[in-house]
Design goal:
This protein is mostly helical and 415 residues long. Helix content is 80%, strand content 0%.
């Protein structure tokens, strides 16, 4: 309780709440087409390849939009940038409600939904900006818990689509987005820790070998998380012929598991090391993916997906336990770029699974290829991290213990 009070007094909780709601609702909008995938597929008679393309477009568009929003936030402030983005999201959703009538319109709408996916960097920076360094990790974790928006979309979108039609879900989402928008306007305050990052600083991570090592890791952990989250509703309907509402509920079980274990991954990273934690969760995810190749029962498949999501979520937390150790001065810059590249990776798995089903009649090839990619990246991480230990991290990826210099008198006594 005392620690909570110290945390609460050290920052501005209304801004943290506003950042959480902003990220949570934005994340729900970002994956909306995936949550409604079975309805859209039924109306337009889509192939599985088309489904993979449809659910991956918002993910890719969101990744590309993160950097422009980050630049905008430097000129007008993070609170103002969040307000501008949420206003744009409401307009985009109203467009979807009024004008989306064909599959090509759905694809165009996917690009507009990408606006919501740009919220990551601004939301986390806004939420943690009022807190001192010793509490920034916790503040970022609370704001980052907004990725539970995937569960919100999977839970409510199918039910609303069943009763009102899937186009109307865009209209409901526009109405719901007014809540975080109003909370942001009324209660949030611009943090005092202003950062001005040049384009050269922001892109420098792309020129570093270590930066690309983290990029590839996050392509699997976060890219796999968002990719599976958007494709699962369509997968459950196609593979097991469950109802669209049941598919959404099963997706909720999996995505909530991944959201919850993000904090666990960071906690284990602090104690046993981020490299060790990542190695374990990668192996768990790979084993889960290979387990799915056997096309087990609905119950076993759901449990395997929950296992995969738990591993991927923990991997996200472990990866960002390491980022501030590698880039202690430019954590926000490096984290933003890694997040962008990881989000781009979210388009890989839906397309692999969709093409696999369309051309082979089974999802197995897609799972095998993604598991093989994850294994290659794990081997790369183990090789590259050898040069990290003793340099900027301790054994297993733990933070290096600070070196305490002896006082002059103590040094003489020791001699």
């Amino acid at each position: 309780m005392a620690n909570y009070r110290a945390f609460a007094r050290s920052g501005h909780l209304p801004t943290l709440l506003a950042a959480f709601l902003y990220f949570d609702f934005s994340f729900a909008v970002w994956v909306l087409n995936g949550a409604m995938g079975p309805f859209i597929t039924e109306q337009f008679h889509l192939t599985q390849g088309q489904v993979g393309l449809m659910v991956s477009i918002p993910t890719l568009a969101g990744a590309f939009m993160r950097f422009p929003l980050g630049v905008l936030s430097q000129y007008i402030g993070r609170k103002s940038a969040a307000i501008v983005e949420m206003s744009a999201i409401v307009i985009a959703l109203l467009y979807g409600f009024l004008f989306v009538k064909s599959f090509h319109d759905v694809l165009a709408m996917g690009v507009l939904l990408g606006i919501a996916g740009a919220s990551f960097g601004v939301a986390l920076s806004l939420g943690s900006g009022w807190f001192p360094p010793k509490y920034k990790g916790l503040a970022m974790g609370i704001a980052g818990a907004g990725n539970s928006g995937t569960a919100i979309a999977a839970l409510f979108a199918p039910r609303l689509a069943t009763h009102f039609g899937w186009q109307h879900v865009y209209g409901f989402a526009a109405l719901f987005m007014l809540l975080p928008l109003l909370v942001m306007i009324l209660f949030a305050k611009e943090p005092p820790d202003t950062e001005h990052q040049s384009l050269r600083q922001h892109l420098h991570c792309l020129l570093e070998r270590d930066g690309w090592a983290f990029n590839f890791v996050y392509i699997i952990t976060f890219g796999g998380f968002i990719g599976l989250a958007t494709f699962l509703p369509s997968f459950f309907v196609k593979q097991f012929h469950v109802s669209k509402i049941e598919a959404g509920t099963l997706t909720v079980f999996a995505t909530l598991t991944g959201s919850a274990t993000r904090v666990v991954g960071g906690w284990f990273g602090d104690r046993v090391g981020g490299i060790t934690t990542l190695s374990v969760v990668f192996l768990i995810a790979i084993a889960g993916l290979f387990g799915l190749v056997a096309s087990p029962s609905l119950l076993a498949t759901t449990l395997l997906f929950m296992l995969c999501f738990a591993a991927l979520g923990a991997g996200n937390g472990a990866a960002f336990q390491l980022v501030p150790l590698r880039w202690p001065v430019t954590t926000a810059i490096a984290g933003s770029m890694i997040g962008e590249i990881g989000a781009l990776g979210g388009g890989i798995l839906p397309n692999l699974l969709g093409q696999s089903k369309q051309h082979t009649g089974s999802y197995s090839t897609g799972f095998i290829l993604y598991a093989a990619l994850a294994l290659c990246i794990l081997l790369m991480l183990r090789m590259v991290s050898r040069s990290w230990v003793g340099n900027w991290i301790g054994k297993g990826g733990r933070a290096l213990e600070p070196v305490v210099l002896a006082e002059p008198d103590e040094a003489i006594a020791a001699d």
